[in-house]
Amino acid sequence: MLFNSGQFLLFFPAVILLYYIIPAKHSVARRVFLLAASYYFYMCWNARYGLLILGATAVTYAAARLLSKTESPRKKKHIMIGGLCIVFAALAYFKYTNFLLENAERLLQSVAPGASVPRFDILLPVGISFFTFQAAGYLIDVYRGQTPAETDFVRYALFVSFFPQLVAGPIERSRNLLGQLDCTNRFDYDRLRTGFLMMLQGYFMKIVIADRASVFVDTVFGSPDNLAGSLYIAAVTVFTFQIYCDFCGYSLIAIGAARILGVDLMQNFNAPYHGISVRDYWRRWHISLSTWFRDYVYIPLGGSRGGKVKYYRNLMITFLLSGLWHGASWNYVVWGGLNGFYQVLEGLTDSFLHGKTGQKPDPARMGTGRKLFGTVRTFLAIDFAFIFFRARGLKDAMRILRQIFRAPQWAAVSAPGLYEYGLGRPDWILLILSLVLLMALDSVLNRGKDPADLVLNRPLPVRIILYALCITLILLFGIWGNAYDAHSFIYFQF
Amino acid sequence: MKMNGKLKKFICVLAVIALTAVNLAVLNYALRDDYAYSRYQPFMDHSEDIDVVFIGSSRVVNSVNPMQLWHDYGITSYNFGNSAFGIENSYWSFRLSLRHHIPKIAVLDVFGASRPETDKLQLGLAHNGLDMYPLSLEKVRAVRAIYADPADQLELLFPFSVFHNRWSGLTLASFLPSGKPPVTDTNGFEFFYAREGSVPQPQIPENETLDRDNPPLGCRYIPEFIDLCRENGITPVLMFIPHEVEPERQREANTARLIAKEKDVVFWDLREDGFFNDLTDSADPNTHLNPIGAAKVTGALGERLSAGADGISAADHRGEAGYERWDALYDTYRQNLKTAICAEDSYERLLLRLADDGFGAYFLTFQGYEPGPEEQALIDVIPHNYGFESGNEAENPENCDLRVYVYDTETSEELKIFSFRRMTSEDTNLPLNENE
After folding, report:
1. Rg of chain A over all Cα atoms, to the nearest angstrom
2. Which of A121, A414, B119, B161 lies most in the core, judged by the most C-beta atoms within 10 Å?
């Protein structure tokens, strides 16, 4: 079930209504209801994959319970590794089997030309990377003693499958989410309005900006011809905003929906394109995944301890793995590698410019010009890396790069030629205006303020008008309904 | 105090919902597909005195002219046909219309009875027959009965869900009644000004029918239509509009004949009247009729209805008190026809327009011009042809090949003189150049 489907617009109000109709004192009934709703939400895609979540839930629940009853550190380690192996094996099977077979075939062909390795017909379950990482994170937390093993299976199953964040995050930590799943909360009007506002912003980002941008991006990247390099530059720039609006939009809808149900999910994006360095960008982009990799990969590898070389090595390993998490294809690995490399480069530059410590000056004390320079430089670097992310493979990315450098043909990105790639003039104007509005909201967020206050601090009649106007404009300008193809969220595939 | 706070919040939520609904209603009005409203507004506004409705596909739209029925027979009628409508679409659109008005007689063209299912093309055109009806449980039933896909159902129940993609075309005029196209002056009838002969079709015997054991979707709705009419005290009639149609269409007619016999209703197979001339009456191959064909079909229906053929009779309301609006409607219709004929720039379309009893024409030819056989056939059916003569070359300063003088037969007023020139001097059969 997509957040931007009519089905969800019926499902979600029904869930809110029924959830709050069940008295708060019957918290078990509420949990069972939310669990059933979450499984229904997920099984709308493919009922059989409900078993997959159930399996991951059962394995990590049992492993954590075993951990809590085991004293021996060695045994504990074995239990944790065993549990992780099982859940990651499922992820590996569904996501990486054909990638491995494809690479094995290439290797084989270098020795025996014409050799082939058969592939499996595997359909990647929606959101498998997200719930697997969430369950794995819980098991590691229990192993580390950072969180107690959950005894209530229903509560734990709800933690793994809580529908707002089930298929594309935020990847929650047990420390934050499990405790909130008591389901004893009463209906809170303030939560309703703030959650609703977040959902509205999410829908605006998704169906007004991201889905509109995708029309142009898909047309350019999907073209079988070699188009002008400047068109690819324009398309990847638009894609940079598309993926942000798509994923951040999803996260906002998820966080807003959870908030209405009385659950506070972690922030997943914090004005990422205001980042003044790639490192800063990664503190703002897909925060739940970045911190997951930080806590469960980067720090266990040694983090920044043990000297610069080890630090850079750990950084590169973390980002290469992050690339691989996004997709079983070398272009994602290159994308991850590039993002790691940028940070290595920044580290080296900082060391050169700021002495042994390599510490940059406090951003709060940096001048506007320097900040702007950093922001633009970071955006360009991220934008360039996204060529590898959006291309249909490594070869395709290289073809696009060749076009960009060999045949930019700048005239191709001027009107009216630009209007031949799916978006007419009115759509371009709307897209640009929407992006300006979004960047303005992000700059409010960047200053540490909540953009929702722009609405919430107004007098009641103005607020009512603003709510109604926002809904109306999103419905008017959004890409939805039979006239358009409903677009899935990009991150569902990961 | 606590209750007041809750009540206030509840009212706030309701206010947001209400304001959003108002906004969407306004936008829905501005973005709606005006065609449906333009065609059906007269019915929605003044349906109380309509005795006969004609239901079916675009074949009905282009074949039955309620204005001619009024003028020639005093019959009050409405053309409820719709492009690409299967019988299932026609049935539900008609059923919804009964909430506004129950006519005395409903005539269903059975063309489309062989259609196995409702397709996507019809989805787009289904708006024409459904959008003007307000949202109701009956409309929900109609949409659910015709379309299985929830996305399609959503589109038809809330047209804004699809028409919001027209936002870039919004202007201030879109929100104002004056910015909307004028409503039809023909009670649903549309002229199809074209002429193209049909591909000859093999004729099948009358006993060849559609599969009765497992009838196609369209066929299943014919008995439903008959039952619906009877439940509402309406006299149902089945008909088949003449044309050179494919064997499958002939099976539709044969099946309708059987159903009519089984259900004891009248079936008017207008092919039996023998008036159809493919050379002059067909707008496109094997399907639609042009104004010449339409005038013949309407005349045949008018004769039957006024004579009480097969016990089906519609009253002549001409001159009756309370029917003055029909005269006014007809006057508007005639005035619009005059305006349209004066603006005509195609010779062939002009000939088709001249098939109307209200116009007459006199032809003067120059430079040895002689009409080709198809053109001659069209000239031959002009009811008021005042002559076709060679003109004096000295009186041809514009160097044309043909001059047509068009008159209003009721007032004898000369409406316009048209001059045409051959596209090539060698071939008189080629269409002539546009009026200069």
Report:
1. 23
2. B161
